[in-house]
Amino acid sequence: MTHQKPAGLPDKIQLFIDGEFVDAQDGATFDVIEPVSNEVYITAASAGKADVDLAVAAAKRAFDEGPWPKMLPRERSRILHRVADIVESRDEQLALLESWDSGLPITQAKGQARRAAENFRFFADLIVAEHDNVTKVPGRQINYVNRKPKGVAGLITPWNVPFMQESWKLAPAIATGNTVVLKPASYTPLSAALWPEIFREAGVPDGVFNLILGSGGVAGDALVKHPDVPLISFTGDSSTGAMISTNAAPLLKGLSLELGGKSPSIVFADADLEEALDATVFSVFSLNGERCTAGSRVLVERSIYDDFVARYAERAKNIVIGLPSDPATEVGALVHPSHFEKVMSYVELGKGEGRLVAGGGRPEGFPEGNYVAPTVFADVRPDARIFQEEIFGPVVAITPFDTDEEALELANDTKYGLAAYVWTSNLKRAHNFANGIESGMVWLNSNNVRDLRTPFGGVKASGLGREGGYRSVDFYTTAQSIQITLNEAHSPRFGAGGK
Ligand code: NDP
Taken in order 72, 75, 79, 85, is the CA torsion positive or negative? Predict the structure, then answer.
C-alpha cells in the first residue's frame, strides 16, 4: 500500500463567518502537515483578533436577530437530524480526510464519523424530549423553569479525534439554541473544514455556525476574552485549561473544561483475564494512544503479575503498525513531529524508570514519519514520571500491587482524575473500589463504552464541569426560575403608615 493523498482535498482551508468562506483579514495563513511524511500539504487561514471579532459579531447577530434560538425544538431537531444524515453519508470521505490529517488508523477514523453523527442524533432527540420541573405550593405559588440558550458559545477543541470532539460540543450547543464560534486545533484543521458545507446543506441559518482557525494563543485567546461570548467549552491540556480559566475569570464566563488524564486500569486476580487483557491493551493503543481516557497505567495484582505482563508485552509486540489508510493498521502515525518528540522523550525516560518489555522507539521499517512502537514498561514505581505524567501516545506503565488498599492508593496517586477501569469478578469489591477512586468516570469490567446520557468529565486536574445528556443542556442554557403567586401578594406594607 502506498501513501497517497485522498481525493477531494480542498486547495486551502478558509475561515467560515456569517455563511461565507473567507481568508483572514490580514491574509495570514499557516501550514498544515500530514504525519506520515511530515510534509506540508495545505495551508489554512490563520485568524487574528479582528477575525474573531467578526465571527463573534456574526454569531451574536444570528442569536439576537435570527430565527435559530426562537425555533421550536422540533424544528431545530429536524435540521440536526439532517446534519447527522449528511455526516453519516460522508462517512467514507470524512474518515479518509481525518486519517490523512491526524494519522489515525482508517478503521478507527470511521468509527469516529459514526459517533459524530450519533452526537447530533442524540441531542436532536433530547431537546424534543427535554422538560423541566414545575413545583407548586398548594394555593400559593407555582414555580417553573424557563430554559433559555445563553448566546454565543465559544468551542475550543484538541487535535485527537478532532471531528468527533467538535461534534460533541457543536451538537448540544446548537441544539439548545445557541450560536457558536468553533476554534479547532491547528494540527488538524482538515475535517473541521467540512462542517460549513454540512451545516449549510442541512439548513442551519447563516451565522449560527462560525469557524475560526489559527493559533490557540491568538485566535483561541481572543475568543476566551471576548465580552460577547458568555460561555467557553474547552477540551485540551490541563495547563491550557488552567490558563483559560484565569483568562475567562474577569468576565465570569460559564466554563466547561475537559482536560488530560492518566487513568488506571486495575486488574485483580479474580478477573476474566482474557477480557481484561483485550481491554487494557485496546485502551492505551487504540487511537494511537492519543486518547484522554486511555488506561495508561495498568495496575495488576501480584499473583498474576508476571504472567499478565508477559502476555501484555506479547500483544503489544504483535500490534500491526502501518499506514493510517491501510485497513489492517492498528497503530498509525502520531499527529505531529512535536508530539512525536514529546512521546519519544518519555520512551527514553521510561528506560531509566521501568523495565522495557515491548517497543521502546521507532518501529522497524518506519524510518520516517511520527511512528512510535507500542511501548510497555513494567515494574514502574509510582514516583516515576512515566507513572505520573500524561504521555498521550502508545506507551503504558505497568505496576504490581498486593492488596485492595494498595491498589486504590496507586490508582489515586496522580494529579489527574478522568477515568478508571476495574477488572474483578467480586461485585462488592468492584462497587467499593469504584467509590474510592478519585475519577469522573469508572468502567467496571468494560472498556470505554459511552452512553451519551451519562455525565462525562473529570476531577482534580482532569477538568471542571460535566457534559453529556442533560448536563450538556444545563451547561448550554440558563435555567431561569419563574415564580407565580396564586393568591394575594402578601407583601409587608412599607411606607403605608401601618394601614
Ligand atoms: P491544547 O491544550 O494544547 O490545545 C487544545 C486547544 O486549545 C487547541 O485548539 C489549541 O489551539 C487551543 N489553545 C491553546 N492555547 C490556548 C489559549 N491560550 N487560549 C485558548 N485556546 C488555546 O491540547 P492539545 O490540542 O495538545 O490536546 C491534547 C490534550 O487534550 C491532552 O492533554 C488530552 O488529555 C486532552 N484531551 C482531553 C479530553 C477530555 O475529554 N478530558 C479529550 C481529549 C483530549 P492550537 O491547536 O492552535 O494550539
Answer: positive
